[in-house]
Each structure stands twice: as C-alpha cells, then as structure tokens.
Design brief:
Mean pLDDT of chain B: 80
Helix content of chain B: 10-25%
Distance between the termini of chain B: 42 Å
Largest sheet of chain B: 5 strands, mixed
Low-confidence stretches of chain A: none
Radius of gyration of chain A: 17 Å
Number of domains of chain A: 2
Largest interface: A-B, 79 and 68 residues
Shape of chain A: globular
Structural class of chain B: mainly beta
Structural class of chain A: mainly alpha
Oligomer: heterodimer
Distance between the termini of chain A: 60 Å
Largest sheet of chain A: none
Number of helices of chain B: 4
Shape of chain B: globular
Chain lengths: 166, 410
C-alpha cells in the first residue's frame, strides 16, 4: 500500500471533520478534502516530501476552502447568487448548529482559527501552519474571534427567545 | 444559549467525521491528479517547444514525455494511530513540540507538550530528561508550581496539577476569594464567559487552591516573579478597557485606562524590573500581529510613554512580534522580530528614546534561514531566559539571545 493510500485511510474522515468546522457545510468539507487528495496526487513529490502528510493535506484543504469562500463572496457581490452550495450537516444538537452557523459570519481568519483550534482540537502552532500565519496571529484571532462569536451567539440567542415568546 | 466554551469543546469535528457516509474513490482522485500533472507538463512542454524551436528547430526536440520517477515514501508504520501511547507519540519522529514550561527554581524541572496530528502527550522531568514520565493529554496553558510540578489551566474546571512523577490530579479550590501570596501561583479557569471564569492561587507546599479577587472581564493575567499581578481588559468586553496591576495579590487594583476602540488588542509585557510597568498594543488583522506600540511607565504608573514602531530612533523594531517582548532587570526591552524579508529577523534590545539594536545571535540562530518557530520568554527577577524551538529542537539563551544551548525535550 502506498503512502497516499495509507494517509487516505487514516486521515480522510478526520480531515473532513476538521474542515466541516471551517466550512460549516459537510458536503463542502468533503469536496475540499477530496480536492486536497487530488492535489496530493498531482504534486506527488511535494506530498511525499512532507514531514507530516496529514498537516500538508489540511493546509491545502484550508486554502481550497478559503479560495472557494472568497470566490463565492466575490460572486455574490457581483450578484451571482447561485454559487452557494446546499448546506448539509452532521447530526448535531441545535446549539452546535447555531454555533457553526454563527462562525460562518466571522471573518475568515477568525473562523479558521476558532474552528481548527477549538472544534478540531488542533494546537495553536498547527493552526498557524495550516493557515499560513504566525502563532501570535492565531492567538490574536482566537482572542478577537471569541469576543465576536460571543456577541453573535448572544444576539442569536436573544432572537431565538424573542421568537419563542412571539 | 449554553456556555461558549462548552459549545466550543462539543466534539463538532468528531461528529462530522462520523457522519461521512462514504469515502470517495481514491483511484478516481489519483486519476484527476495525474491528469492535471499531464496537462501541466503538456502546457510546459508547449511553452518550452515554442522557445526552443526558434533556436534549434522542431526536428531536435525530444520525442516523448518521460515518466516521473517514483520516490519511495516512508514506512507506513510512521503514520500515527488512534491508540498510540504517550511514549509512542512523544518519540515519534514527526512529533513536534507544542508547549514548554520550566520551573523557576530549577531549569531541569520542565514539562514539554508534544503533538502528532491530533494526538497530544506531555513529557515531564525533574532532571533535565535524564529520566522522564509521560502522560496522554495536552499541556496547553500551564504554569510551573515550584519544584512540585505544573499547573494546567482547564475550561470551566479547577486546574490540574501535573507532578514531576507524571501523576495528574485536580487542585481542590476554596471558592472564597482572598488575595494571592507572592509564593502562590495564580492560574486561570477558562470559560463560562469571555475569556476567563476566574482565577485561582495555588500554594506550592499545601497544593491547596483558592479564588483570587480579580476584576471581571480580565483577558490576560500575568504574575511577576515578585508576586505583582498584571492584567489586561481588552476593548469589547463590556467593562472599561484598561491595564491593571495589583501589589497585594488582588486585594486592590490600579488601572490605566485604554481607548475603547474595538479591534485594538493589548497584552501584558512581562517585566523583570520592579520599577517598570509595561504593556503592548497590537490589533486584530490578517497580517501577523506585530507590536504597534509599547506603553511603559517608570514611576509606578503615574506617567506613561508610548513608543511607536518606525524607522526612527527609539522605535520598536518593525515586525516585532506581539506577545514576544519582555522588560529586562535594567528596564530595557527585549523583543523578537520576524519581518517578512527575513534579513532583519532576530532578537532586539531597546531602551526608551534610543533605537532598538539587533542582537548578534550565535548558532543556531546566526543566519536568516534558521529562524525559531517557537519563542517563549521566561521572565524572572534576575533576567530573562529565552526558549526558542527550531527544526524540532529546543534551545535556551540566558544572555538575551547571544548564545544558545540545546535543551532536551524528551
């Protein structure tokens, strides 16, 4: 069995789980992880030279997700509404789904840092490696992202309560 | 709405991984990759042909596309597995250092957090890793507790004590707050609010803990070697932003107000000088969080000077890393700078009103290509020890970055 197959067997589902935290959409997470494996097959030497193949794939997948997000945002600014994929989610409690949805409203850097560190349980320096920024940047994004997320969740929670009262 | 920290640790990624119905056909993914490679080569060959044909003519071009030689990959046994023991994780050739904590009483007493994929383990020693104990788990945010071991902060729970014999136990905490003694070690309880639910002081002799009176909404708290507490309330938390300090273990706090400008971030600059109070200013942005300014008081907080980065005299070095700065016993600053050009990267020393000067670091940090990827300033009353990781090795400098010695980490 070659290395790509080994890594695929060992890491595919885990990577999808981690990228779901970033993308907020299970189907899209599967797409970007699949794309990362395509790129591993395309750039075989770079992949095989990677010290940590799973981290290499994660970095590629995060970059793919980021590029898709930016393209979609640019498309929406230009009025192309059809670019957003249909959302699919794992069976999670409502509050987790609200959390994942709230995270999609954060700036990309904060969302990636929060998702990879808290939801995917990666250490800060691995988040830094996956997102291509310094460790201090990740710390700052986590700090600011938590503040923003708390505010978003509070407003969401208030809206839900008001809906219930109504 | 449930508590933010509880939500953030709710196994979202695991649930998503478990929800994957079927994995794609790797052969099809390979095929797509191989096709892209062929297309790229064809395009490159076409460009080369167009250039070369001008000189030598089409008849001399190579006639076929050679197959790329296959490099042998590492053994499949190198890949991490879910049930790896702490020793297997720590000794794995791909494992990397995540966190290092060193006892203030003896640098041979240290704990090193390792990670391998999503697996974490801690190696702890009291003899500089002549011998060691290991445990699965994440070191995360931790502080040394004298010669006893290390206190590990946790979400919504009292800290754990990792003793030097490798045992883990939860610290019993008296919920009644009273001031921390200088010999006690103050750690946070994360969660149940942003960003800390409370602060606990632990006695290194009795191992008992108690709550410490710390104002609400403190984002960061640093305990200096003399016991003084320094804290930051960042803008956006509801409370008035400020830099706070207490000389009596939290009983009374003094406050230097900060502008309530959302997007600004402030951080404590650990100080080895009792006469110097300092904090740093950065901002949340896509660029690396560099020090936008240093704020320093030499008169107990009565007056403050703001040192801004620029190329002029007295400036903070460009791209000095936020959170990687300390005040030395003589009141000067030590920073770590990583400008994108790489040429000026390194450690810098600076004083108020004078230009920061780059430290002429010896091996292994004597060339721009060899930059540390993990830098920790261990600030004591008698100086600052720098721990810097590079290429999975850890080095220590006790002369402000001039000379370095390797430190064992496992």
């Amino acid at each position: 069995m070659d290395r790509l197959q080994e890594v695929f067997d060992a890491s595919y589902r885990r990577l999808v789980g981690q990228l779901y935290a970033v993308c907020g959409n299970l189907g899209e997470a599967e797409d970007v992880v699949a794309e990362a494996f395509v790129r591993a097959a395309d750039k075989r030497r770079a992949f095989e030279a990677a010290d940590n193949p799973e981290a290499w794939l994660r970095t590629v997948a995060v970059n793919v997700a980021r590029t898709r997000f930016r393209r979609r945002a640019a498309g929406e600014r230009l009025g192309f509404r059809a670019a957003r994929p249909e959302a699919s989610h794992p069976p999670l409690p409502d509050d987790r789904l609200v959390l994942v949805a709230a995270m999609q409203r954060l700036p990309a850097g904060q969302r990636e840092a929060l998702a990879l560190h808290y939801l995917a349980d990666l250490p800060i320096n691995e988040v830094a490696a996956a997102t291509g920024v310094a460790v201090g940047t990740v710390k700052a994004r986590l700090s600011r992202g938590r503040q923003a997320l708390a505010a978003l969740l509070d407003s969401t929670s208030r809206a839900m309560k008001e809906d219930r009262h109504a | 709405m449930r508590d933010l920290d509880e939500l953030l640790t709710g196994g979202v990624a695991d649930a998503a991984a478990d929800a994957v119905d079927s994995t794609p056909d790797l052969a099809a993914l390979r095929h797509r990759g191989a096709r892209r490679r062929r297309l790229r080569r064809t395009a490159l060959a076409g460009l080369a042909a167009a250039a070369v044909a001008v000189v030598i003519g089409l008849a001399q071009l190579p006639g076929h596309d050679r197959a790329e030689p296959s490099d042998p990959g590492p053994s499949p046994t190198d890949l991490p597995t879910p049930k790896m023991s702490a020793d297997e994780i720590i000794d794995h050739r791909r494992a990397e250092v995540e966190f290092v904590v060193v006892s203030p009483d003896d640098p041979d007493i240290r704990a090193v957090g390792w990670w391998l994929g999503d697996r974490h383990a801690i190696a702890v020693t009291d003899d500089g890793f002549e011998s060691r104990h290991t445990v699965r788990g994440r070191l995360g945010s931790a502080k040394p507790l004298g010669r006893v071991g290390f206190l590990i902060e946790r979400w919504a729970k009292p800290p754990q004590l990792l003793a030097t014999d490798g045992t883990l136990s939860e610290v019993e905490v008296d919920r009644t707050p009273w001031p921390a003694e200088p010999a006690e070690v103050v750690v946070g309880i994360q969660g149940s609010g942003v960003p800390y639910a409370g602060w606990v002081a632990v006695d290194p002799v009795t191992l008992a803990g108690h709550r410490v009176p710390v104002p609400e909404d403190v984002h960061e708290l640093h305990q200096a070697a003399d016991g003084r507490l320094h804290a930051i309330v960042n803008p956006g938390y509801g409370a008035s932003p400020g830099y706070l300090w207490s000389d009596d273990g939290g009983l009374n706090w003094q406050r230097h107000p900060l502008p309530d400008q959302l997007g600004d971030l402030y951080f404590v600059v650990p100080s080895a000088s009792a006469a110097t109070l300092a904090f740093g200013e950065t901002s949340d942005s896509y660029r690396s969080p560099v020090i936008d300014a240093l704020h320093v008081s030499r008169d107990g907080g009565a007056t403050w000077q703001r040192i801004e980065p620029a190329s002029s005299e007295g400036a903070v070095p460009p791209a000095a890393e936020a959170y990687q700065v300390a005040v030395l016993p003589d009141g000067s600053f030590l920073t770590h700078s990583t400008p994108s050009n790489g040429e000026d990267a390194g450690f810098y020393l600076g004083e108020d009103g004078r230009a920061f000067v780059r430290v002429d670091s010896g091996p292994p940090f004597d060339d721009a290509a060899h930059r540390p990827d993990l830098v920790t300033f261990d600030v004591r009353s008698d100086g600052v020890a720098i721990y810097a990781g590079a290429s999975k090795r850890l080095y220590r400098s006790t002369d402000n970055g001039v000379t370095w010695e390797e430190v064992q980490t496992r």
